[in-house]
Design brief:
With 675 residues, the protein is mainly alpha-helical. The protein has 29 helices and 5 strands. The strands form 2 sheets. The protein has a 3-stranded mixed sheet. Strands 4-5 form a two-stranded antiparallel sheet. A hairpin with a 2-residue loop joins strand 2 and strand 3. About 1% of the residues have low confidence.
């Protein structure tokens, strides 16, 4: 056997051991054997918790798995690692709880994902030497999250203890775990080089969210390299100045009312609190996180193959489709969640549930739709411009991306990717395509749409967004929500929104954004030729099916002047969710669901305010340059990303953020990359 085959075999064995060992923590020959799960065995499992391993249970229930759902449970201690901690009947199924110790899970998942980045890296020609200084500093920073987001962590582990002493094994183990991982990352950085461009599609397979933690592996990875970037390169001066100025403004306006957000599907990349400490933590972590991207683009000898880049996207689309299908099974669903670090478990059916599109392996149907759209754009670009080794292979594999895009039901991604592919086709036929032509086409399409809209349709579409925001606002105070709704609607026909807000002092209970938009919509002087800004926004919301979600955003979003101008800090959504009282015009369970803004631009408004949003817009538009092939591909990809960010929260998911910022940096720093 060759050395390479031996190495691959050893690596495969290590991975299998890492996956199986944590769930095979009891003997098959002990006094508590696993039995088939049914009504009669409920008492047996409930009275023998922390004694029977998951592997034992699965071996005895191969033919019974369709009746079982496996739920991980982080609260029990280390003695319950990989073992049954409970069994409960829910409807026609049985919910099997399996203990997963937080520290054990952290180390196992870290080792798995460290192997991953090893596989997507190359050996350095010369071994580098980096300082040990970042390791204790970063370990302390990440340990501080336990203090600043205590409400998130305390209910998840019975051993949670914040007592500062060396006898506190919980804190000591957490600190040593971080230290060990950062030591391994230091060793990796000194000896190997990560090909960041090839790694982007892999992030959509390995989400990297640690079990029972509001932490992601890629935060650790990029934060470590971000610290190195500051030590080695000093960072980017203008970014440092700008971020520093915003930081002072964020701290000057920290809310005294504390709220808690359970993070839901955003876990690992969102602030669960709005305290001063948690704001400080996320400001520091996000600053280093961004610097991590700068580090990889500052590395010398950045040679990439566009064909290889395309292949990684195609192969990832195939794997994601397959894993999504595997995730519909009991075992696949559980191990997908643990091995790949999902924020929440995948869907167990192949059909949409509770009015949500089938998202398979992804936390968001829109996000995965955008991934497939980018995959198709890259593939067709390579095929049309001969940047591929096998056209037949590309076409056959792209079927998976097409199927995934259709299943995601992301119409915006379908239309925008098809349009960009058409433009690329025209460009490949030597037709002159530049920024002015694309902007002109967009303007013409918008003008044509306005012409087609008749007066009745315009009257309805121009007011529906404000109507929706009012319906979800906590205005009238009758206990019967139906009566509140009827009273609100009585003002809609005459568009008498100012009277509605003044009636019973409703303006005091309305959000500042609703009050502002109503005043803009109801000007004292009406100029016929100039379109009303709010009416235009409403028509846009109707055209992209965002009326309900943006209406809820307007009802919720009640910022101070400082918040509106400069935001509340990176990944800080807690104030938006809970600070202003609203009354959703829904019945349960829909009324209790998580309603995000459903526009990454609105997300950025929450984080960085209108000033930050305008700066980001200016940077995006300024840097779209249609240079020579193959670099012009990334300008088209950036346009695709911008279009889709307008109607999705993709920037709030780590995968979406990594994909967006990488594409942007390729466009800006293309001179540092060779293809």
């Amino acid at each position: 056997m060759s050395a390479k085959k031996l190495k691959n075999t050893a690596l495969t064995i290590i991975i299998l051991v890492l996956i199986i060992a944590p769930f095979n923590t009891s003997s098959f020959l002990d006094d508590f054997p696993a039995v088939e799960i049914n009504e009669s065995s409920l008492g047996y499992y409930q009275s023998n918790t922390c004694k029977i391993s998951l592997i034992e249970v699965l071996s005895k229930n191969i033919s019974n798995l369709n009746n079982i759902t496996i739920n991980p449970n982080s609260y029990p201690g280390l003695e319950c690692q990989g073992k049954v901690t409970g069994l409960d009947p829910i409807g026609k199924k049985f919910v099997l709880s399996i203990g997963l110790n937080t520290n054990v899970s952290f180390l196992v998942q870290s080792f798995l994902w460290l192997v991953l980045i090893f596989l997507f890296s190359s050996k350095r020609e010369k071994i580098l030497k980096f300082s040990f200084i970042p390791i204790p500093i970063l370990s302390t920073i990440f340990l501080s999250q336990l203090y600043f987001e205590e409400r998130f962590y305390r209910p998840l582990d019975k051993n949670f203890d914040l007592d500062l002493s060396f006898s506190n094994l919980y804190l000591v183990n957490s600190f040593l775990s971080y230290t060990f991982i950062f030591l391994l990352l230091k060793e990796f950085a000194e000896r190997r080089k990560l090909k960041i461009l090839y790694f982007v599609p892999i992030v959509f397979i390995f989400s990297g969210t640690y079990f029972s933690q509001n932490l992601n592996f890629y935060l650790l990875l990029f934060v470590f390299f971000g610290f190195l970037n500051i030590l080695v390169n000093g960072g980017y001066r203008y970014f440092n100045y700008g971020y520093g100025a915003f930081t002072l403004l964020w701290f000057s306006n920290v809310n005294n009312r504390l709220f808690f957000f359970d993070t839901d599907k955003l876990r690992g990349f969102v602030n669960s609190s709005n305290s001063l400490g948690s704001t400080l933590y996320w400001v520091i972590v996000f600053y280093l996180f961004i610097n991590g991207f700068f580090y990889f683009f500052n590395e010398s000898d950045q040679n990439y193959s566009l064909d290889k880049f395309k292949n990684y996207f195609l192969y990832s689309s195939v794997v994601i489709n397959i894993l999504g299908l595997i995730g519909t099974s009991t075992i696949g669903n559980f191990f997908n969640f643990f091995i790949f670090g999902q924020t929440k478990k995948g869907i167990l059916t192949l059909t949409p549930v509770t009015e949500n599109t089938w998202r398979g392996f992804s936390p968001s149907a829109e996000l995965i739709g955008e991934f497939y759209g980018i995959c198709l754009i890259i593939t067709f670009y390579c095929v049309m411009n001969s940047y591929t080794a096998s056209i037949k292979k590309d076409i056959s594999l792209s079927i998976f991306a097409m199927g995934g895009l259709i299943a995601s039901n992301n119409i915006a991604a379908v239309i925008s990717s098809a349009t960009i592919i058409l433009i690329l086709f025209m460009s490949s036929k030597k037709l002159i395509i530049n920024k002015k032509i694309i902007v002109s086409l967009i303007v013409l399409i918008l003008l044509f749409s306005v012409v087609l809209v008749d007066r009745d349709t315009y009257d309805y579409s121009s007011t529906v967004l404000i109507n929706e925001a009012i319906l979800h606002s906590d205005l009238y105070q009758f206990e019967d929500n139906y009566k509140n709704t009827v009273l609100k609607k009585s003002f809609f026909d005459d568009r008498d929104y100012l009277s509605l807000l003044s009636d019973e002092n409703n303006y005091l209970r309305a959000s500042t954004s609703l009050n502002t938009l109503v005043n803009i919509f109801s000007p004292t002087i009406n100029i016929p030729i100039v379109p009303n800004v709010v009416a235009t926004l409403s028509i846009v919301a109707v055209s992209i099916n965002r009326v309900e979600l943006w209406g809820i955003f307007i009802a919720k979003y009640s910022p101070s002047i400082n918040d509106f101008l400069f935001g509340q800090g990176p990944n800080q959504i807690t104030n938006y969710l809970y600070e202003h009282d609203i009354r959703l015009d829904f019945k349960e369970p829909k009324a209790g669901a998580l309603f995000l803004p459903h526009s990454s631009f609105l997300d950025l408004l929450l984080f960085y305010g209108i000033v930050g949003l305008l700066i980001i817009f200016a940077l995006l538009i300024k840097n779209i340059q249609f240079s020579s092939a193959p670099y012009n591909l990334f300008s088209y990809l950036l346009i695709f990303v911008m279009i889709n960010l307008a109607k999705s929260d993709s920037i709030m998911y780590l995968q979406g953020f990594v994909m967006s910022i990488t594409i942007y940096l390729i466009v800006v720093l293309k001179n540092r990359i060779r293809m």
